Known about the structure:
TIM Barrel, eight-stranded parallel β-barrel, 42% helix, binds 1-deoxy-D-xylulose-5-phosphate, binds the ligand NCC(=O)COP(=O)(O)O, transferase, cytoplasm, pyridoxine biosynthesis, Aldolase_TIM, Pyridoxine-5'_phos_synth
Amino acid sequence: MNSSQHPQHRTALSVNVNKVALVRNTRHLGIPSVTRAAELCLQAGAQGITVHPRPDERHIRSQDVFELAALMKAWPDREYNVEGNPSQNLMEFIRQVRPHQATFVPDSEDQFTSDHGWSFPQDAERLAPLVAECRSLGVRVSLFMDPVPGQMAAARAVGADRVELYTEPFAAAWGTPQQAAELRRYADAAQAALDAGLGVNAGHDLNRDNLAAFVREVPGVLEVSIGHALIADALELGYAATVRAYLACITAGFGVSENS
Ligand SMILES: CC(=O)[C@@H](O)[C@H](O)COP(=O)(O)O
Ligand SMILES: NCC(=O)COP(=O)(O)O
C-alpha cells in the first residue's frame, strides 16, 4: 500500500519554527519574528505550526509558545503541535495552551537535537498517565518513535493517538545504496502503526529532496513536521515560496506512483 492508492488522504505540512527563534535569540531586537514567520507560513498554505520548547530555551522560549497559541486562534482550520519531554517542561505548556497535538519526545535536558524515540516496555508506566492527562484536556498525543514495527502496538497500548516516526536515518540514507531499504523500513513501521490503530506522523531532517518519496512510499502519513531544512530554504527563497515548494513535494508524492 502507498499514498497514491489513497487519493483522498493527503499529508499535512506543519512548519517547525524553532530555527527562526534561534536566530532571533542572538540579539535583543525581536527579529526575525517567530509569530510573523508562522503567519507567513500559514498564509502560504502550511496546515500547522510546530515548536519544540527545550528547557534551556536555546530557541523557542515560553513566551513564543503562548504568542503562537494566540496566533493559531486566528487560524481555526490549522493545527498547533507542541513537542517536548513530558517529564521536563512540556506538560505545563500543554495544560496552559491546550494545543491540537502534543508530541512526546524522550530528549535529555541538554540534548543537541532529537535522536531517538521512546522504548517499550521501559517507558510505558511513566508515559501512560501523561498521555491520559493530555487526552482528558482534549489534546491529541503523538509519540516520537524509531521505525520499529514491533514497538507500535505498545505505543497504542499506553493510549497514544499517533506516532511520529523519527526520520533522520531515512534522510541520512537518501541518495545512498541504503535508500530503498530504509524506505521499506519506514513503510513497514507505518503499516504496523496503522494496524495497531495509530495515526502516523513523521519528522526530522525531511527536506525538498526526500519528502515526495517518503509520503509516496510510506502509508498513511497524516503530518510531516519540518523545520531545519525548510527554514534554511526560506533564507534563500522566502517563507511563502518555500512553503509552496514543500507542499508541491507532498502533492508530487501523492501523484502517480513510480510502481503503478
Ligand atoms: C522531535 C524532533 O525531531 C524535532 O523536535 C527536532 O529535533 C527539532 O529540534 P531542534 O530544532 O532543537 O533540533
Ligand atoms: N518533529 C520534527 C520537527 O518538528 C522538525 O525537525 P527538523 O526538520 O528540524 O529536523
